[in-house]
Amino acid sequence: MALRNTGAEGRRSAVRSLVDASARLAPARLLPGGAQTQGGGITRTDAARLAARRAAMDALLVEPAEDPRVLPVTADDGNPVHVVERGPADGVPIVFIHGWACSNRVWNAQVNELSREHRVVCYDQRGHGRTPSGTAPASLDTLADDLDAVLRATVSPDAPAVIVGHSMGGMTVNAWASRHPEQVPVHGRAAMLVSTAADRLLNDFGVLPFPERLPGALALGRAAMGAPLSAVLLPEWGFHYVTMGGHATAAQVAFCREIVNACPARNRGRWGTAMSDLDLRAGLESLTVPTTVVVGTDDRLTPPVHARRMAEVLRETGRLERLVELAEVGHMVPVEAPFEVDAEIRRLAAL
């Protein structure tokens, strides 16, 4: 279902109506990717619920009705960071960090829902969206320092934030906790690591069933991640297979593909190389706030084995809040399962 651009109030009302209808028709027992079945078939009631749910999810992808407040933030090396804020100034803050080859737009579904009650802060990571690459090395340490600068500029110790990172954004959170452990309890109320990894990224890779056992496979994987090739070269069906679950809607696939295609190939290659040799277990051990780990069971880029390993480390440190595995959902969890993601963020904000 397409929404016409009817102005801020019209868009807000249309989105709200669809989401409210979905909440009535699609109870929590309905899985993100499918409907309940009886005797191997889908009932008419379940089909209606699923259709309502899919329409509501698509509606959440529209650009937020509220114009953002652009916050002036500068990284430690002088590089400007594009940061936007929405929602009530006195709401519990939520800071969103997007993943590789994306931008802050990937959080539209969360912003549209959560900014009604929370102060929502999103920013473009270095070399993505409206944040330039700058001159600092393309490394997780650089991204960690950028996050620290954003938190210092936007989050008061008197009102710490729920810090949510997806994919490379989750790696940024772990790198920040490793480099700035003293800041974790100052700026963090809780954390949420979504579709991400802390180590062995190429060893446990689900796109192609080849790692480690194939001579030169890891070197090939590093080269592929660092290749400055246009994402447009990957056809829609290939993009869908690599990044999303089989039940993602056409609108969700198109939305994510548009965002990834907008990332310059050179920048995507630089940050792909930065992630290829990943070891952020120390960051997990320094993440001293309640932390939820979320993954889709059909995630091929960071398969569930990564989430389970991270959860085990957090369990050992006593900081694991929940491990959430979403059935039939791929790597783009914030887009594919917005209701589940938003509900868990609200729960963390209430701690």
TrEMBL record:
Taxonomic superkingdom: Bacteria
Keywords (A to Z) from UniProt: Hydrolase
Name of one Pfam family that matches: Abhydrolase_1
Gene Ontology MF term list: hydrolase activity
Domain AB hydrolase-1: 93-338
SUPFAM superfamilies per record: alpha/beta-Hydrolases
InterPro entries: AB_hydrolase_1, AB_hydrolase_fold, AB_hydrolase_sf
Coiled coil (UniProt feature): none
Record's protein name: Alpha/beta hydrolase
